[in-house]
Amino acid sequence: MKESVRIGFVGCGTHATNNLYPMLRYARCTLEAVCDLDGNLAARNARIFGAPRHYTDAGKMLKDGGLDGVMVVGPFQMHYDVGMAVLERGLPLFVEKPPAPDLVRTREMVALARKKNTFIMPGFMKRHGIPYAKARRMIQQGEFVPAMGFFKYGHWAMHGLGLLYTMSSHPIDLAISYFGEPKSVVSRMYDSGRTLSLAVTITFTDGKIAQLMLDASQPRIQERVELSGTMNGGNALIVADNVCHMELHKEGRDGTDVVVPSLPEINPDFDLGDISIWRPDYGIPNMGQTRHFFQGFAGEVREFVDAILENREPYPGTDDCLKAMRVIEAIMLNPNGQVDLVSD
Fold it and tell me: C-alpha 262: how far from its chain's center?
């Protein structure tokens, strides 16, 4: 097995430069080539992040070769156009969400990846956010059994259902990561004339449900995830607040959930074991105590590189490109009604 992979990166915009390029240093890779239509930006990122080559033509970058995988971060159409060119060469592709402008073209990308025996990793970085990944491990290990989920995601003003493709795709994908294959979607939309707010209920194939409150009328991003279920035979609740605060609430004797002869006999237990809290140690900053780790950017870049090195599907992987897109297009098709989903 190789010890390192050579990465080509297409796109030098603000998000890519601030959140993804710096994460390459935490993965077992080298940045071999950078590409952007703006030659100045391509030259800048090549200089800052140590790439020996930079381009303004992605096709030329791919033709010159020497790459083990390619990351593509930019506009929707670029994701599809460049992504298809990457897949045509049989190279693993990391692509920011959405992978294409619509479900039809996403299916084309998935089909090509399968034909070329390679993979697509969509940029749902929140799956690798520290508290979200911890909750997922608890579920996978059978420690916590979820029954339903509540996902609140609010961000700055946006109008048009395109908000689902960009910001609000994150909680949709998170719900899928915890509950599996979506079966149907019910949504209700409020249009203020300037922004949109959506209430969405997703039912999964096992009958479990997730409720999402998607709001594009807030001054800044606010997110909250609540997973209710059972743990060791008792009710339990996992809460992740703004990615940097996690609580685990377990059923305990607090004086109100037990039968007592009379009110004067109520004596609440002070049991710190009922609630566990995690938060970053902001007081002493270190390499791991940064938002890039909490939010999942470092984790997703590492996963992409490790999947190449280990010759396996990444997490999230090729099939995950389609699941969130099916939910998104169902809401766009009927933002005030129900749509039953059909798997590919």
Answer: 50
The helix (H) or strand (E) run that includes residue 333 is helix 320-333
51-56, long-range: CB < 8 A, 24+ apart? 51/9
Mean pLDDT of 123-129: 96
What is each CA distance from 274 to 93, 138, 231, in whole angstroms? 44, 17, 12
CB 96 within 8 A of CB 73: yes
| Per-position b or e across 230-264, b if 16+ CB within 10 A of its CB | ebeeeebbbbbbebbebbbbbeeeeeeeeeeeeee
Of 50, 219, 246, 241, the closest CA to residue 135 belongs to 246
Q: What DSSP state is assigned to residue 96?
A: P
DSSP string, 135-174: HHHHHHTTS-EEEEEEEEEE-S---SGGGGTTTTHHHHHH
Write down all domains in the chain, each with its CATH number in brackets: 5-118 (3.40.50.720), 127-287+325-340 (3.30.360.10)
Query: pTM score > 0.90 for this model?
Result: yes
pLDDT tier at 261 (50, 70, 90 boundaries)?
low
Taking only Cα atoms into account, the Rg of the chain, rounded to an integer number of angstroms, comes to 22
Cα dist. 37→7, 43, 79, 185, 295 in Å?
18, 11, 14, 39, 28
Q: What angle do CA 301, 302, 305 make, to 5 degrees?
A: 90
Strand partners of residue 234: 231
